[in-house]
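Q: Protein A?
A:
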Amino acid sequence: MAERNSTGLLMMLEPTPAIAMTLPVEVREKLAELELELSEGDITQKGYEKKRAKLLAPYTPQIQEPSLQKENRIQMLSQAAPPGSKHNKSRATNTRDERFRSDLHTEAVHAALAKYKERKMPMPSKRRSVLVQSSVEACTPPDNHSAPPDVTGLLEHSLHADRDRPPVASVKVVPRGYNHSSVMETADGVPVNSRVSSKIQQLLNTLKRPKRPSLREFFIDDFEELVDVQQPDPNQPKAEGNQMSPLAGEPLGVVTNWPPSLLASLQRWGITQPRSPCLTALDNAGKPVYTLTYGKLWTRSQKLAYTLLNKLSTRNEPLLQPGDRVALVFPNSDPVMFMVAFYGCLLAELIPVPIEVPLTRKDAGSQQIGFLLGSCGVTLALTTDACQKGLPKAQTGEVVTFKGWPRLLWFVTDGKHVVKPPKDWHPTIREANNEIAYIEYKTSKEGSTMGITVSHPAMLAHCHALTQACGYTEAETICNVLDFKRDAGLWHGVLTSVVTRMHVISIPYSLMKVNPLSWIQKVHTYKARVAVVKSRDMHWSLLAQRDQRDISLSSLRMLIVTDGANPWSISSCDAFLNVFQARGLRPEVICPCASSAEGMTVAIRRPPESGVPPPGKAVLSMSGLSHSVIRVDTEEKLSVLTVQDVGQVMPGALVCVVRVEGTPYLCQTDEVGEICVSSGSTGVAYYGLPGMTKNTFQTIPVRASGGPISGRPFTRTSLLGFVGPDNLVFIVGRMDGLMTVCGRRHNADDVVATALAVEPMKFVYRGRIAVFSVSVLHDERIVVVAEQRPDASEEGSFQWMSRVLQAIDSIHQVGVYCLALVPANTMPKAPLGGIHISETKQRFLEGALHPCNVLMCPHSCVTNLPKPRQKQPEVGPASMIVGNLVAGKRIAQACGRDVAQLEDNDQARKFLYMQDVLQWRAQATPDHPLFLVLNAKGTVSSTASCLQLQKRAERVAVALIEKGRLNPGDHVALVYPPGIDLIATFYGCLYAGCVPVTVRPPHPQNLATTLPTVKMIVEVSKSVCILTTQAIMKLLKSKEAVAAVDVKSWPMVLDTDDLPRTKRLQVYKPPTPEMLAYLDFSVSTMGILAGVKMSHAATSALCRSIKLQCELYPSRQIAICLDPYCGLGLALWCLSSVYSGHQSILVPPLELDSNVSLWLSAVSQYKVRITFCSYSVMEMCTKGLGTQTETLRLRNINLSCVRTCMVVAEERPRITLTQSFSKIFKDLGLSPRAVSTTFGCRVNMAVCLQGMSGPDPTTVYLDMRALRHERVRMVERGSPHSLSLMESGKILPGVKVVIANTETKGPLGDSHLGEVWVSSPHNATGYYTVYGEDAVHADHFNTKLSFGDTQTVWARTGYLGFLRRTELTDASGERHDALYVVGSLDETLELRGMRYHPIDIETSVIRSHKSIAECAVFTWTNLLVVVVELSGSEQEALDLVPLVTNVVLEDHYLIVGVVVVVDPGVIPINSRGEKQRMHLRDGFLADQLDPIYVAYNM
């Protein structure tokens, strides 16, 4: 792998081997001690070098002056022989230059890692089932439980403080599913558990370390929130050399009997040397199976050619015409059949397209191969009998059509299927003309497959150049370990071998896997003169060589290393030579070469007899290379790359090096660029891709002056390198592996080399590491994927991963964005071993890689985030307001219709109290039905008319006074399931002068979590009595209840199931309408239990507003599918019908669990015009009935009667859900205009409600980036970064709304974002809290503007929103003002100085992978925590981590700190369908979520 020097070995202080031997023993011992200290990390690099220099000073010759070293920028550091000796070109026989030892890289990495103190990184947590094998839990209890320090430099302001709103002195309710006994609290009341908090503490400690390019902490106030562009470092190295001049190879020699074409050669040898061996095939045991002679190759090729042209036909037309393309599908174990098929096609003037054997329908890259075959118009595939039998078959017995492939006819080329041509048939052997000879496939960096066409002259010229460069002679034996279908395996083992009548021994990959030494044994057996291998084959043979003693490699004159251009090939070459020199391998025999599919062979080191300069090596600075500059071994000893030359340019070729990007300017001599070659022996084109062909095969390099360097076009080879001294070519990487991060270039192979040098290697497989880059937030990010060994421990693997990150950071000065380990044998493989990189990348981006370990480091990598925002001081009030304008805009103020003006002969207006209204209705219309309650079957389970309700209420009142001995003003908790009982007891309390408090009953199957909430509301509301049913009464005092709460402290409990009939009762008359009517308790999304006080006046005003807005009369029917315990749900269930006299069809939402269509059936059955539901109900219908609309239609469900369907909510309208609902049920007659939303909150249950009249709700599109800066900026639909926002219904009669600045409390202008303030007769009068500290929160309910209209008393809703005057007209003929609610202030996250709404981040996250069912986000000490529910299999859990991190970075410019993957249903949701993010946060910190995986992003 890429060699790196660790310990200053290349300074002139390095003792030469001779000096080293003459050093005194004690000095050598001291040096060894120093080495040990450095490797153990007991001494710094600097200290080591100092001490070493001191020890060696007396023994070293005078050091050359530094200025002399600088003269030659590329100093060749290892010239093996003195210049004088022309023939003695061999390297030193006993020892190679120590400076290039193959273990140097490992040393460099060790030294790099020694710089990092053992720092504790938080290890990801896994659920046991996800572990490959169980490992010790990494838990370290924290030293203290205080909240960790802030690490981002921008403290998250307490949002309560921001708004001068102290939190409601309220109670954190323990969420469902959490046991609260194990909750610890931090100093600021955050419950934590030692394990999670300690890991977050570790994460914060890691993140506190400075990042490499530090963020400049200021913000340019600009809408476009420009991503920070990396400015080039003024000190970065720049090329200083002269412009290079093109380099020409030696001319192609004239050969007397050189054939006019390749087929002429075949004919010549087939006729004159028929018995001469051409190719020997081996089986998996290494035994020769068959030797193909030149005579056999000639006759069999003719047979096949004849058969293809004459015996294959469709509808009496020949199937193939000369020039048609034919696929060659042959396994790597059958070179003989392939060779016959290849030459058979050439003889028939068909164009062979060799491809891999498809094994399954899902082979890596198979779809792209299919695309290539389709674009080449291939209709026929040649294969062997055995291979055809092994292909996957359809039920008809035919070979299946693979995904993306064209329909193919499969033809088996075995003997019985081909026919002997008649005596008078002879193939035409033409001179090499410009027709295409064959097409070789190549996979690009992005994974697309291209076909490279090679013409007959190019094929022949390439054979000529290889014969001359390698000195091939007739009848030589050559051992080919490569894939014979393409690349060097095809060029040497199938084409050139035939021109020069060589004997090829083909070693199949399957044999190499069983016996890695097989190729060496065959070289020995056949006395082969040449072997064609990859560095992998050399590496494998090293691992197996101990078993073999009696082999000799002395016959080899050339060992061609075809991937010699790979930076890591040098270590394989060195190690191989060290071991096999003793077995007769001569050092000068190793010949690395550089080639590419487009340029074919570009350069090769010549065999020693050809009298060329000795081989060279360069030790180059990594840092210089990243700036495309060549610097020989700078001071940074850790980060150097050692490369070997790949010899001289091919005969007859002209080579130059051009800039990688932009115009192909010639490089300077000390600059790295792409190698371009102009010769007759390169590929000609990409088949069917003229544009790409022009860019690659017809490049015209230009000089700095702008003139072309030559009239000939050049071919880009995709090799990156430079020309060194002695005209040796050096390759430092390939375009495919190039990753440009922050303007610096890194090579994937170098990064792999560093990862592999991190010891110990017992956690991952050596050859199975993929490195690639993905584009995230306008820059490339490096991803490393490796296969984890099955026996690797969780903790060991994690340690290895963290060390890899540190090593790459230290050596390449670049951060790794993501490091993933996948289970053994799960990475997509290339056909002959190795990793299919583009397929791995594709799977990573699609979330289909299924890693078992992931480590993300966005904090250290992502350095181009926009600058954090610093708030600008606001303009003072005096300069802003003029009349009714603020800063040049109309003040954002709006109101509903004026209640006083509306004459609607409303009889109920005469009464101040709801109990009076009920009495009046019981007298006036005693039998008028008010309520119908439906059960799950859709039948009516109970009803109540005005008189029935009145009588039941009276009985309850008598029981309260006589049995309960309650006094007027006492608080009574009503614990009932949704139904008539709840409504009757509510009025019973009003009749007795008591204050009702509606409480959701505990869930019998989940008492442990639901009962404490009931207990808390009862205690907080100071209820002196509980009214309930007998069944619930038993539940409150059951054994299970004892485990959950203290049952002895319940107040008096009365059941109302069998109350006796009573005499008439004197109904309580409150002295003033401002007295308390009822308490409304609800848990906010922040987990805060807040009760608000509703006076009699507010209650009546609320009912009147709803009546007017919805046009409710006694003749109307409305359907309600809401919970009746708080907010507008309580008002619609218990109050509205009594006030307006309409009939309410009540559908308890719980019944939908057993019958999803219950609500819609009721709406259809009763032909309801107005219906109310919650988001949870709408979601259940959308998900549960989405595919059943046809069934519903057959059941005669028709929704065309619905005029308005309102979703009751205290949040931003969920536009996606409402639109899906409308779309799905459009088929059942639901009008697209019917669905709308309402808006209410704690201070006012109903601010907006669509109602029956007025314009349809409008939708606007906002720029999300502006929204983060608390600005409203309208954009067009479909704009990037746009957010659609729907109006929250029409403002109710009697309600006034103003938008106020959260800090200055001044009014804002139209379309400006601020807090929504509301003034109305039905505002609640205040919080009812534990301690009754009403004064503390007084300003939530009565606050005034700081300027402008300073008289009106407003209530603060705690929601951000804006008003916008539309072009529509409302019922009164005025222009309509629309209120848009953006989100709750309490919920917003303040990160990097900007305000984010969790729902926006969650929407992005849910979109990132199909298996994310739900998502919730919250912050903890400025870390963004994302919790995702996984609906797929657990093996997908870790796929989500990079995808979630990517999407939040791309869409919101935020770095995710922690990703938590949990089971579906873990994110707590309240009855309104809102996420309880704070409960989730508490559960996470208390380690109660039982997550599948927790990833701590570094």
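Q: Protein B?
A:
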Amino acid sequence: MESAKMTLEAESSQMSHSMKVSSQKKKKTFTSSEEDTSYNNTIPIISADVMSVKELLDIGSFPRHRTWDIMTHMAHEEHRRIKWTLFGNEAEKMERDVTRTQHLLRKRIDKVALRNRGEEKVAEHRRYLEALRKKAPDFTIPLRSHTVWEGMRAVFTCTIQGCPPPKVTWFKDGVPLTCPHHAWNYTPVQKHGICTLEIRRCSPADAGKYKVVAKSALGQATTFATLVVNSYLGAVAGSGRSQTSEPEAQFSCAFPPTWVTEGERLTLRCTFTCPLLPFQRDVSWFRDGVPLEPSKTVDLKTDGNVATFTLEPMYKEHEGVYTVQLRTRDGVREHSAFVYVKDASAAVLGGPASPLAVTVSDINKDYVFLTWQPPSADGDSPVEGYYVERKELSEEQWVRCNVQTQKTCQYPVFGLKPGTLYQFRVCAVNKAGMGRPSKATDPIMTADPNEATRTMVVSVDRGRTITVTKDELEGEVKAPLPPTDVCACEVTDTYVVLSWSEPEPRGREPLTYYVERCVVGNNSWEMASLEMAVNSPRFPVMDLVKGKKYYFRVRSVNKYGVSDPSAASAPISLGKPQAPPAPPHSLLPFRDTDTSVHLKWQEPEDKDGILGYYLYYSEKGKQKWKTVNNKPCTKNSFIVHGLKTGREYVFRVKSVSRAGNSNYSEESPSIRVKAALRVPSAPSAIALLLCTGSEMVVGWRAPAHSGGDPVRGYYLDKKEEGADVWGEVNVSAVQQRQLKVSNLTSGNFYRFRVFAANMVGVGKPSEPSEPFLCEKWTMPEPGCPYDMQIKEVRDTSLVAVWAPPLYEGQGPVTGYLLEMSQDDQSDEWTAVNDQPISGTHYKVCGLETGQTYRLRVTAVNEAGAGCPSLPSEPITALTPPGSKDIEIGVDDEGFICLTYEAEEIDEESPGLWNRDYTEPIDESRAQAHSQKNSSVLTFSDASEEDLGLYTVETTDDPGKSSSYDFTAEDLERLKELSWQVRNPLIELKSGWQVEVSEEGRVRLWLQTESLSDAAELRLVFNDHEISSAPHRKITFDKAKGLVEILFDPLSPEDQGSYTAQLKDGKAKNQCTLVFVDDLFHQTLALADANRHNHKRKSGPHFQEDLSWSVTDECELVIKCKVTNTTKETTLKWFKEGKEIKEVSYDRTSGVSSFTIPQASQEETGTYKAVVSDKRGEDQSNLKLLDDEYDKLRQQLSKQCALSAGPLSIECTEEGFRLFCSLKYYTSHLKTSWLFKEKPIDQTRSRTGFSAHKVWIDILNPTEKDKGKFTLEMFDGKETHKRHLDLTGQAFADALQEYQRLKQAALDAKRRAHVIKGLPDVVAIMEAKTLCLTCFVDGDPYPDIFWLRNDKEIAFQGHFAVIKEHKCTTITINNVTMEDSGKYSILVSNKYGSEKVDVTVGVYKRGDKPPENAVMMG
């Protein structure tokens, strides 16, 4: 401490001396930096006040700042410069700042030195006190033993002393109880020197010896105690006597390899043999060895004897090996299976799958770097690139980061907001479009990664801390220093990412950066970060030119200004395009299980950048490739699950890298999916079959699994009871499942064990038998049967097969008793048969599906029943998947055969055939061979000697077996079928057929099944073989089995019988046609007619003859259609010899029509159409007479009736008018009116019709006319009805309207009105007399007024009015021009009035009167 202080004072005094010397020099006035703007704009000058304290205090040893070099250079050039440099003013300012900084730094250093010295003294005193307190561990109060009842709580307690505090470890039966592996109910606690272990709900498993070990650097101490748990069942756990504990759970049914679609839910279920014990309930789940914990997407449940794992949604990143672990008393048991994640449906048809494993790295304020893995499925075309998308956590919209697609699986994202949470995802793109997005990344916060390095936390006494930041140590820094270490951290063929270090010291003010660049060889620098704010020491440059090299430099910027540029980087250029990796090679498949294949391959020589491998498979010959894994496999081997047993597959593999996927490897050799060959499992059920006193015959049960190859033999070991070494009984393998053991000592006990062997090797030994006493058997009852096997297991039945006992007792075995026990541990046995079974096999029926059974058998003789056999292995009554029964039939050669299909059967593993389950097949009578997935037993010459029960089982799985009882009925039926196969008939699909073509050709033909190229035909006509002739052509299509005879033309000489004789290998057949009499003559006539018609059609002709129809508009349309016409072709219509001109004709379609809007009797007659040109003429006739006209009239009536609208009502002054509107009404349509389903009284009604309406008037209606009215229209065949329900309010409204109209009509008759009016305009010559007369009527008689120009005329002068009964006249004598004008007569009474006008025109003599006037006078 003292030396550091002296060094600091020496440096300070040296600096003070240099400052003093500098201040004694003559000071001059210089231009300030603010005034010399032109120089500053060219090269930014860093002032001396920003020099670090380290530079000022240690100028000699620290490299000098470039500012010192500039100032020294300026001093040397002082006399030669025209302008003064900036040194004077800046140096004076620097003196003041340095002095102030010096005093501040001295105070801080003194404070730190004092604090450090105090801390050292305190620490030294603490170490002294701790040394005084040190003591080795010692238990002042040791553990005490406990005895508790099952289910109670036990607590072990001890007290320990020691300094330093010792480490305490608890042990149970020598096994440490380390968290978290100890049982759930164990809770160790250590506090204030007191150690406790609480055991909740004690069980017999918790009984034992407990130990506590305390360790420290000074020694170790130990204390012991015993826990005894009394069981309610009477046993005492931990006491050395027999214990009874609850059975612990084991795996019963675990999840298999699973496939789940991307985005869906994964549920894995594991079932245990019994409910989990308390210490087993903590079931652990792993994916690829990584523990899985509950979260928002992961749900772990354990209930009773079931544990479930749920993950939703699934992504490709979740693909892998899932493992579940279960604790047992013997350790940890686990089960694993692979979970495959399939691609979800493409976003666009043919689009690529989603990328995966999007990772965010190099997180800065405004920059992150993304990497990902390419998808396994490209879609319909290769992946061309990727789009990167980002989303702020607070927003919903995804924003694309790159405009152009990114070729490789990495991308720098720039321009982010500092301090913001972002998520990122990636989409692959091909020619079809953009695929599904990848799984979004977890939210990341953009922040300065160096922020933590700028803060230091110092611990002081009593747990206090002091936080010191670099800002406080650096002091006040204004104009920033330049960055350092500018380099390229990422280089690709499309962009370069620059990185640099912050300036030191940085200062408190926030920094941004300017990035500049220039081409190598050119000193012109330009801004690379133009219009972009760079907030972090990372910057991606996207616009570099390939082939050019660049220098880069960076400037720091804060609110005080811009720094000098940093040192230029080394030359930087775009890199070479990243090439995809090479594909793997030497891909080989190996057999694994009956649904999986193990693949291995050689990795490429250059493995740099390879992330893993994608695998693909296809059935052999189909070339329909499917993806195996959607997450790259990182090893060079993989087990492909989910394949179909017995199918042949080929495989290929791709390498995966950031540059994309490689090409496919070469296809692997094909492999048939089948379980790999293994050694057989251990035999079981060793039984003593016979003992003579010095020899024993030992029998056993075959292994449950043969390992894919038949068991070739067995090896037996023996040892005396109490001996430790096993001895071999047989050196050579034995085929039978029994063996005589000789040279034994009578009275001794012996144990035996058995090995099974196949072509792979010798399997594991069986469990040792129980001790067998070597003593001669003399009991009268027979020995036990042995080698019991269960075959043909189905849902409700099974077959038990056994071997007879070797020891028969006093007499021969007369039968067997079969017993059955439910469940695999039950001791309750039930007899299956009431009477002894004579044979050594028996079919047990009536089983419960899904129930587990065991069987045993007992031999019986005259002395009674012997001892039972050992129970069979537990078997569940369920039909094995894919099990089929034996089928009997005849093969292609006509031999009777039995066929059994199973996916496990092939040439390597044929089926095993027997008679009555045990008797081998006589190869002289029948031979067995295997085909693809089937085993066939073919009889050489089946006869009654071959009848009986035949059985077959698969080599790999004897549990898959079947049997068939070959009966006499089968033999008789199959012999007949065999004869048919050996003497086949050619099958006729069709006998002789006769056809006549439009051209008049006659075709005789017959068809058989498809024939081979060696087929032969012999055609016989009237007992003579015939062949093709000029008018007769014979063809024989063997592939279609078609025989044809074509006559052109058919002549009377061709009448007779035709026989076709066919032969194809062994198959034969013949068919005869008797072509005579009516059949021949009708065919000949039709051929002649067709030939004539064909000749007619060589010119214009009618494709459709004249025909008529009635349209929906009730119009009659007569039309025809012609074809084969030209421009010169004419078409004319005639009726009764007269040409019809109103005909439409469309030359394009050939349709011509004649439309009659309202057909009537006039349309009857004969119509003819004639089409003709120079090639010929054709005509068509239509007679609309008699019956044909009646059909037309009926059809027209029907269409008129169908066009009828609903029945409606209108009111008149006479009553109700019920009417129905039609598109056309014809008198042939008979109408009837009904009221309440009865004809209407004609005395009170009046009917009528028009062209479009039919009606009935109900005169003077009353309340009696309320009801349903019906109109019936009869078209000659059918009756059409329309109804109107005139009741209720409808009737009331109609009756009211009728009464109103009736009253209005009556009032109209009484109203004053002009009966016979005046002309509109009259003309009269001047000086003549004008008389205007009107007839009027009204009740009461109306008042009459004459008006002139709407003013009443005063009857004086030359006006005179005469009023008579219903007549009035006005006379104008000696008319003048002034009498011209409008005259009116107005009549009125109390019911109304009427006014009639007349215009009077007076003209002079000699003038012409108006043309439209009535001449008067």
